[in-house]
Each structure stands twice: as structure tokens, then as C-alpha cells.
Amino acid sequence: MTELDPVIHAQARLRVVASLSALNVGDKIAFPRLQELLAMTAGNLSVHLRKLEDAGYVEISKTHRGRTPATLVGLSRRGRLAFEEYTEAIHALLDPAPSKEQP
Fold first, then answer.
1. How far apart are CA 94 and CA 81, in angstroms?
2. What domains can be seen in the chain, in order of their start residue?
3. Which residues are CB-neighbours of 41 under 8 A, at least 6 positions away?
4. Distance between CA atoms of 16 and 57, rounded to whole angstroms?
5. How far apart are CA 5 and CA 87, in angstroms?
6. Its pTM surpasses 0.85
């Protein structure tokens, strides 16, 4: 049986990774916009982003827009691959290869 990546499998982190995977490779989204899209509190989103960052699945950069600090979040190459593997595992669980019929 196929194993699901426990880092991605948590519902909130799955929502984060799925949202980030919709971005073009190398693109990032502002933290407040991601928070708004996912309807998560800043604290909750931060906790899940930290777990994803520790696994190397997201890249977080801190910058400034004018004088205002900005946090940008993007899916890393490793994160994109992990999400692709995760979705393949889900497909395999939902639609397993047909077994040969016994005579």
C-alpha cells in the first residue's frame, strides 16, 4: 500500500501546498494574500508554514515593499516534487490497478 507524506497529509498543510502548487514555478505569494485565500489565522498559517519549511517544501523570504516588511511564500522544487508524489499516491489509493481475475 502506498504511503502518504505525513508532512503534506495534514489538512491545513495540504491546503497550503495545493494552493502554492497553482503558482508558476519560482513565483511567490504574499503571506497576507495566502492567509486570506485559505481563511486561516496568521498564527495557524505560520505554524504550518514552519513545518513545511523545515521539510524543505516551501521557501519563505522576508523583504520590504517600501518601508513595509513583506513575507513571501513559494513552493520549493522539493515541495513541488513531494506534492506530485503525494497526488500520485492518492490516485493509486483511489484507483488501484485491477487485479487479475482468478479462474
1. 20
2. 6-94 (1.10.10.10)
3. 35
4. 11
5. 10
6. yes
As a residue count, the chain comes to: 103
Asked if residue 73 lies in contact with residue 59, where contact means CB atoms within 8 angstroms, the answer is yes
Q: Write out pLDDT tens, residues 2-58.
A: 689 999 999 999 999 999 999 999 999 999 999 999 999 999 999 999 999 999 999
Enter the C-alpha cell of residue 18.
Answer: 495545493
The residue whose grid cell reads 522576508 is: 62
The rounded distance, in Å, linking the Cα atoms of 69 and 65 is: 6
CA dist., res. 72 & res. 7, Å (int): 21
- Cell readout for 81 is 516534487
What three-state secondary structure class fits 57?
Answer: coil
Model confidence at 75: pLDDT above 90 = yes
Q: Cell numbers at residue 92, please?
A: 493509486
Q: Where are the beta strands (DSSP E) in 1-103?
A: 29-30, 58-65, 68-75
C-alpha grid cell, residue 25: 514555478
